[in-house]
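Tokenised fold entry reproduced for absentees:

. . .
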Amino acid sequence: MSIKSFGDKSILKGPVYIGIDQSYTGFGITAIDKKGNYYTEVYKADGSGIEKLCNIRNYVEDFLSEHEVAGIAMEGYAFGREFGVALSGELAGMVKLLLFDLYPGNDAARFPLIVQPTSLKKYITGKGTKVNKNQILLNVYKKWDVEFNDDNAADSYGLARIVRNKHDFEYEKEVYDKLTDK
């Protein structure tokens, strides 16, 4: 098991918004407060199969237990990927069941906002297609002055910003409004 962390967990104040970029190879999760303070981790779980799923579940539960959660966004499925769709489905389903169990009475956390990869890319870069991982990392740095060296961290940070519902650009608001049917 390894965990890479970015930001300072101790400066988070009040309720936080969570962004989850679920991946078997690097599970990215970000907590961001109303002022924009953030803390991000990328977790690389040990094991394989059900053991790895259990390790990720326990990790996510521990991370979330440290925060008062106001809302959660998760990255949707990348249907264009040739391999790993079944594994991605298992992982996302496990996370959704965990959230459902952890947050009775808090629908914003219990039922996460699902953000398709193209919508996340548009929110971060202003365009939803033909965006590579380096462009995501660069745009997170240029727009929000937050530096990551891991695309899972950058994606989870972008997801947390979306669910936080504070938009600096019209295209960000457009993405959010389409996701929430506003």
Remarks:
- The chain has one domain: 2-180.
- Strands lie at 2-7, 16-21, 27-33, 38-44, 69-75, 113-115.
- Helices lie at 49-65, 85-102, 107-110, 117-125, 133-144, 151-164, 170-180.
